[in-house]
Amino acid sequence: MEAVIVLLPGDGIGPEVIAGARQVLEVVAEKYQHNFEFREELMGGAAIDAIGEPLPAATIASCEDSDAVLLGAVGGPKWSDPAAPVRPEQGLLGLRSALEVYANLRPVKVYDELAGASPLRPELLKNVDMLVVRELTGGIYFGEKTRDEDSASDLCVYHTHEIERIVRFAARLATARRKQLCSVDKANILETSRLWRATTDRLMAAEFANVEVETLLVDAAAMHLLSRPGDFDVIVTENMFGDILTDEASMLAGSLGMLPSASLGDSARGLYEPIHGSAPDIAGKGIANPCGTIASAALLLRHSLNLEDEAADIEAALAAAIADGARTADIAAGGAAISTTAMTATILEHLRQP
How far apart are CA 350 and CA 354, in angstroms? Predict the structure, then answer.
């Protein structure tokens, strides 16, 4: 197979973890006789420093001409002034819109060996294997914004078609898993959530009668993610709720550094990234966890390139490295920690095996 993969290292630890993921994809290409062409482009704070904008037109064009996009992270204190006319995060929102990716998939799986890295009791972490599907291009993040000296507003808007497509997307994934879907909203307070709930109930009854549906208010969902995480299969929710709940769910896995994500739309091309931020406090120290980015590369192979065996091979190599005791500082739980490059090397060692 031939494929063009755009790499967007971004800011902070982004370049460090993208370097590890690229090595993994290069080994996959060699092992399975694929031809992956990598194109590295500017985005985020790095792009602001270079040309004054967070998402250059050349970057958008390169991404639109690719088969998949792998992103590191954007942002940092250097560009964090709320009054700044341009910020790195604007590039991320703009890229999601340009690529028309509206479904953000965030799998959360707990390795038995990392149960001690989570703040939850180990018995609560048994059989945790969930997939959170977050609506990505609507809601409060994209609504009209106003601000003056004494007030500010962010408009949250959802349309029926936006809710239908994300719920349908999540329900199809649930059908291929345990046939359980949990829809999260705030329908006791918000009109957008009332539309979300009514639309979800109607669509699921009409098209997915074989899927068991649970509806939770977002505050209850936040509690149940900690009290009964093993009960969840697929969770679907709106943009801001999904953003917050998946950061909470990352603690089940022990660290934000462990979790990947895939942002998908109606075409095969997707945007893949770890769910962690740019972590400027550890940037350049060589201690960042590359696992979330490497796992994102596996999702890239699965969803955009339809290379299931190769994706599973990466995931197995990552699991084997964890089983071997390889730990970066964020998951070491007080034990011995290794560097970003050493963790990558351990994964590569397992990946190279027949």
Answer: 9
Q: Catalytic site residue 111?
A: no
How far apart CA 92 and CA 5 sit, in angstroms, is 17
Q: What predicted TM-score, i.e. pTM, was given to this entire model?
A: 0.92
Of 129, 154, 201, 247, which residue is the catalytic one? 247
Q: Which of 11, 243, 313, 330 is catalytic?
A: 243
**Residue 201 known to be catalytic:** no
Q: Reduce the DSSP state of residue 127 to 3 states and report it.
A: coil
CATH of the domain at 78: 3.40.718.10
What is the domain count for the chain? 2
Residues 264 and 236 in one domain: no
Which one of the listed residues 109, 141, 201, 231 is annotated catalytic?
A: 141
User: Each residue's pLDDT tens digit in the chain (354 positions)?
Assistant: 999 999 999 999 999 999 999 999 999 999 999 999 999 999 999 999 999 999 999 999 999 999 999 999 999 999 988 788 899 999 998 999 999 999 999 999 999 899 888 889 988 998 899 999 999 999 999 899 999 999 999 999 999 999 999 999 999 999 999 999 999 999 999 999 999 999 999 999 999 999 999 999 999 999 999 999 999 999 999 999 999 998 898 889 888 999 999 999 999 999 999 999 999 999 999 999 999 999 999 999 999 999 999 999 999 999 999 999 999 999 998 889 999 999 999 999 999 998
Is 243 one of the catalytic residues?
Answer: yes
**Which of 49, 112, 219, 324 is an active site residue?**
219
- Single out the catalytic residue among 102, 186, 272, 330: 186
Query: For the domain that residue 237 is a member of, what is the CATH number?
Result: 3.40.50.2300
Degrees (nearest 5) of the Cα angle 332, 338, 343? 100
Residue 193's H or E segment, with its range, is helix 191-207
141 catalytic per annotation: yes
CA–CA separation, 184 and 172 (whole Å)? 17
**Is 247 a known active-site residue?**
yes
Q: What CA–CA distance (Å, rounded) separates 75 from 130?
A: 28
